Structure formats: structure tokens, C-alpha cells
# Entry
Amino acid sequence: MKIQYIYPPLFKPFFPMATRIITENLTRNKRLETTFSDMPVKAFSSNIDQELYDGILAKAADKFSPNVMRFLRQKYMVNNIFYVFMAQGYFDEFIVIDTEDEYYVFTCLNFCDLLIVKHLLEQNRRVVLGGPLINIGLSSTFIRNFLKTMGVSPLLLAGNLIIVSGNIDLTTDLHRMIRDWKDAAITENDYGTVFDCRHDFLKDFYPDTASIPVHMGFSNHCWYGKCKFCTYRELPRMNFLADRESTRISDSIHDLMKSFGSDHIRFIDSYFRSGSRRVTEILEQIKDYHTTVYTGISMLKDRKYIAFL
# Structure
């Protein structure tokens, strides 16, 4: 069975954990003949978002205070404005593409990504839709109604789309799900298999990987879990350390970094447990890499910070 996998546009180059798992899963499944789209890298490689935002900042500098300008230049704003431009059609030449394969497996990160799903369905392609947007608890009915509001025919939504919730690992049989062609939920997962993944299709699309960060994680559970704005609390709990020895994990990380040719590890704050003894052991064994840890959720351990929020 021929399929094409699409990961949505990235706002800058990095190696997500998800693309390693999907790469290994699809390439190991002998019943699938998979090609991987270069869509994730085309938008940021064009520098369209940078040129647009530089133009906005140039005009804003004459109207706003230095404090406002510092706010507009922070990473949160710079990265998220990317999706505003995407929603306004500035990346259409990269996401509204000619399609040839019958089946497309698509990871949906946010609502903007549904623009790509809409286009695929209107090309009469069959789409397997999963990813974080599905896993935060949105029902299949909600997603189909949203796409219907976007203009997709109900006939296409009924016949050409299946929605799969949950997360895949190396053993998930996507071929069977495509063959059955009905909405499904992945309820069993060995998250630790992510450390058995050594390949990422994105590597073929990056000209130089030495400084491109490799995303890592240990767990996605926030100890607090009460913020009303947070969608992470709806995600399936992932323990990437389960049934894996610390030495085995650190060896896997060394192999992965060597394979990618990168020296930069990036931990997502919600996937980082600094107080864990096993995490401490692993960090000690990989301390020679350039490591970044985002600490937004970790800061919630400060009661004063919670009160401030």
C-alpha cells in the first residue's frame, strides 16, 4: 500500500520526538510503501515569515515604546506569528500542493494545519488524521464539523477521512487502521520505544544538522495540572522512561546525536522531570551536549508564581 506522510510546517528547524517515531514506524512496516513530504521545511526555508514580521516591526518601532518592541521580539511572539501568516494564506504555495498518492497520513498540531487537511480532502484523497490537536480531547464529530464549516463536503468527511486518537509507537499497525478505514483510538503504547528510534525523515531535508536541536522528553505529565488554559492535561500520559534502564537510554541518546550530527538537545518543559533520580542519572551521562530546558511549567512549583498567574 502506497502512502504519503505529512508533518505540518515547522516555524524553524528542529527534530521533534514525533517525527522519529513516525519515521521508524512507517519504514519498518513492510506492508506500507511510504514517502515523506518536505512540507515541514519549505515554509521557514522561504523566510517569508521573517520578511513579513521584520516589516511589521519596522513600522511598529515608530509607534510603540521600547518595552512593547521587546515584547514583540520575544520568541513566543516571533514563533507564533508564523501561524498567523499561515492562516492568512502566505504559505499556500507550500501547503496547497498537487497530490498523487491515494492515502495521506497527517499529524495535526493546531487548527491552522486543518487547512492542509481541507486541501487534501478536496483533492479527493483519503486522509488518516491524528496528532496533538486530536489528542487534547476534541471529538471526531467536532473535527468533522469544523472542517465542514471550513467548506469541506460532508460526503468527503464521511468517506475520505478517518480520525485516529492516541499516540503511535514502533508496534502500532497503521496498515491495519487504513485497511479497516474507520475512526480508531490507540489505547496501548510503549512510549519508551522512542529511544529505539534512530532515524528521522527530516534529516534528508536539513542542509546542515550540526546546530539543529533534537527534542527529548521523559514524561508529559505536569505535577500541577489545574491551569484552565492548558491543553497538556488532556493528553494521554506518556512515561518515556518506563521499563528502560538509565544506561540504555543515555546510550540511545548518544547514538541518536551521532546519527543526526547534532550537538544540541532541547527538553520541552512539560516533558522534563528534574527531580527524578533516573533523570539525574541520564543527564549526568549526556552532560557534554549543549542542552536547553524550557522552564515554563517547572516555574509552577513556585507558589508565588501560581498566585501571580
